[in-house]
Amino acid sequence: MTSTRRARKGERRPAAHLPIARVYVDVPLAHLDRPFDYQVPEQLDADAVPGCRVRVRFAGQLVDGYLVQRVSDTDHVGRLAFLERVTSPEPVLTPELAELARGVADRYAGCMVDVLRLAIPPRHAKVEAEDVAEPTGAPPPPEHTGWHRYPRGTAFMEALAAERHARAVWQAAPDEDWPARLAAAAAVTAAAGRGTVLVVPDHRDVDRLHAACTALLGADRVVALSADLGPAKRYRRWLAVRRGIAKVVVGTRAAMFAPVAEPGLFVVWDDGDDLHAEPRAPYPHVRDVLVQRAHQTGTALLVAGFARTAEAQLLVESGWAHAIAASRDTVRTAAPRVTAIGESDAQLARDEAARSARLPSVAFDVARRALRDGAPVLVQVPRRGYVPALACGDCRSPARCRRCAGPLALPGRHRDGEHRPATCRWCGHGEPSFRCPECGSRRIRAVVVGAGRTAEELGRAFAGATVRTSGRDEVLSSVPGSPALVVATPGAEPVAEGGYGAALLLDGWALLGRADLRAGEETLRRWMTAAALVRPAGDGGRVVVIAESALVPVQALVRWDPAWHAEQELAGRTELGFPPAVRMATVDGVPSAVAALLDELEVPEGGEVLGPVPLGELDGEGNADRERALVRVARPQGRALAGALSAAVARRTARKEPDSVRVRLDPLEIV
DNA sequence: GCAATGAGCGTC
DNA sequence: ACGCTCATTGCT
After folding, report:
1. What class has domain A14-94+112-121?
2. Chain B bases near protein Cβ (<7 Å)
3. Is the CB of A346 under 7 A from strand B?
4. Which of A214, A366, A399, A487 could form a disulfide with A390 if both were Cys (CB 3.0 to 4.6 A apart)?
């Protein structure tokens, strides 16, 4: 009778061994960001393995959760509920991933389940049930790694082979086939029986690097993970990684969490690309996550790119990572010849051809010569809408530069808040008093101009040349090695077969004029990424950059010296008290909520609060809908700051305060 | 003095 | 969104 009553009421008995499950419930509230204890009913004993997905009753609701641990005792004084069910016995939350997610949540003042949402793809039951091939043995090491051209390159490869956790910041030589180099590093790691995670900015880079890796390692050892895969494919590949079948992972952002078995190497390529910053809470950055992961697991790390960020420079200067860079001689022979043309360069004004052509004469000549030699020419232009171009306010004809006839545009508000005059997008000449040559009007209006329009204009300047465009709407991954003008926005530059004969970098003033902490660094990064697609100077490769040659990023490009630029950049930021020399957090929200949070916040020793300042448009009385405050501390107080912020947020969420605040640590955009 | 009722809070 | 605690209320 007792047994029937129990069965009817669904009464359950706890498992005999380790009857308590510690569960992270999928409720993204700061004050609930800790494990809760549940009893494991004996029917679920076998399936309730550490790392599996479960469903539990939490505050009267059925919610998803992750079982992180089975234990024998609980600290909880009240009655424990039972696990409702085990969603799947697949242990998706590996111990390493659990530790990493906890660390990332703590680092960014976020909560663990938010990190897990980024790290673990949604379940796909059919995929989970599929049979998978047995893991393959270690492949032989590659015969040539191509790392010997770098003074510390060979040592780094040896460290990977010996499973030492070497850490390096690598600036690829300007002619480098970087996918081949990274694939070689992954192959060396794989030969030692270890896994590699390689994170690149976008899908095109995934394709290139994946191809390079499979060429060395075979298709069954390498998986490509990117956000645009369908749910089934995504989960299938992710599971192949988790189950230890694929030991080399190539992917975008989310792949930074890929739970590769026995990791031996983590790589982030082009760490300055803002695609490496996750836009969802808690806003982790690939470089920082991989640094943390390398530290936590004793794995080798490579922070790589043509350019070098201030953050990477800090890793070098603090002694945490070695710098791997080619010698000056190697760089000189590998780089294209770079010419800077600034507004003050007399050459432009005197040159007769500069007026009749639509480009500065040097740029025109360089492009024409490359086309005549049968090579494609890359033209880098600002993104559509990035800068509004100008037209006559009356007759609508495009407003043109009186010196080179290039299109005029407004550079936007400068760092000092002052409006600057209309500026030529090609030669950078400022035009304070516009007068339309067609109708004589002095009125001027803004129009949206992007790569398409620039392509049209260039097509006319180089009559008869093929013009291809690559940008937001349609991104080309490669172009043939035949004469053509390839107009591309930053980040969308196609690779050219045999390399470009020349590149014209026309967006310098637009990039450098931005009131952004990272304007200089970002400009150099984009320039170098484009210029690296051009043939070496010895093969006729030329780059023309329309920018003042005295500027630090321009000098760094001309000399191809990204390390020097990063030193300058970090020194400058140290002086100003900007990241990464300090740790910063932004707090956004409606004014009352920001004020309440700051009131609640225990700012760590030596820290300071800046603002709050209005965010976005102001109303009639000068009040903003939203405000932003900055909190700044010395680097050693970074953990304390994150802790203080999450504690303050937790007190707010526990009180069910209606207005939420957004907290971000080390955001890319500060102004 | 104490049961009945409801608001608020924590959430196992 | 449940169920517990605790304060308030109303009656003996």
Report:
1. alpha beta
2. 10-12
3. no
4. A399
What does chain A come to in residues?
671
The CA-atom distances, in angstroms, between A63 and each of A47, A105, A117 are 18, 21, 14
CA atoms within 13 A on the CB side of A13: 7
Q: What is the pLDDT of residue A24?
A: 97
> Could you count the other beta carbons within 10 Å of the beta carbon of residue A69?
15
pTM for the full predicted model = 0.90
Q: Is the CB of A60 under 7 A from strand C?
A: yes
Domain ranges (residues) in chain A: 14-94+112-121, 147-330, 336-386+450-559, 582-665
Pick the CATH number of A147-330 from 3.40.50.720, 3.40.50.150, 3.40.50.300, 2.40.50.180: 3.40.50.300
Annotation: CATH topology of A336-386+450-559: Rossmann fold (3.40.50)
Measured CA to C1', the nucleotide nearest A76 is B12
Burial of A79 (0-12, 13-18, 19+ CB in 10 A): exposed
Q: Distance (Å) from CA A65 to C1' B9?
A: 23
| Per-residue model confidence as pLDDT tens digits over A419-439 | 567 777 666 677 888 888 778
Classify burial at A27, counting beta carbons within 10 Å of its beta carbon; exposed 0-12, middle 13-18, buried 19 or more: middle
Nucleotide showing the shortest C1' distance to residue A35 CA: B12
- Give A124-156 pLDDT, tens digit per residue: 999 999 987 766 678 889 999 999 999 999 999
A657 CA from B1 C1′ (Å): 39
Residue A59 CB closer than 7 angstroms to strand C? yes
* A516/C7 CA-to-C1' distance in Å: 56
A582-665 CATH choice from 3.30.70, 2.60.40, 1.10.3470, 3.90.1750? 3.30.70
